[in-house]
Design goal:
Helix content is 77%, strand content 0%. The protein has 191 residues and is mainly alpha-helical. Helix 1 runs antiparallel to helix 2, helix 4 runs antiparallel to helix 5 and helix 5 packs antiparallel against helix 6. It starts with a helix and ends in a 6-residue tail after the last helix.
Amino acid sequence: MFGKLWSFMIIFSFIVSGFRGKLSETASAAFDGAGEAVTMCIGLMGIMCFWNGIIKIAEKSGILGALSCALRPLMKFLFRDVEPESKAGKAIIMNISANILGMGNASTPAALAAMQELKQESGGKLTHDMFMFTLLNTVSVQIVPTTVIAMRTAVGAANAAEIILPVWCASACSVAAVIFYAKVLCRKIEI
């Protein structure tokens, strides 16, 4: 469906630009945009490889283990039926740790593993822990928004890291809202 919609938008824009006498400008802009997209993707690949390497080093050196220990009390509060030492608990902690460090792409495999384990532990039934985990991943709390900083750097922002304070404020507000919603408003909902 989206492929058809996208194709329609492209064809429609070329038709309109043809009627307005700006077909060459539209074609030029399309090719320039495609070239810039490739350049940005190559820049982002390098930065993502760097941060994925950093997360592997942090994992092997025990930094993620220390962060996991620090997150255990929070884990007990957020996920009432998940033991931090279980496979699901470890995957959740790894996912949250990667999200905190702003590595959304690196956190995805841990999120998938956590949901698979939660599903298996619940016998395929939706649980409040799955609900909470989905909500937390949706808001993605970040202390160091590495992906956004990388994207801003790739497009030539003068001060790519100036977004850190707004990201902290947005993360704090969204996480507080999610916890309030899941713990207070949805407590009586039968899943």
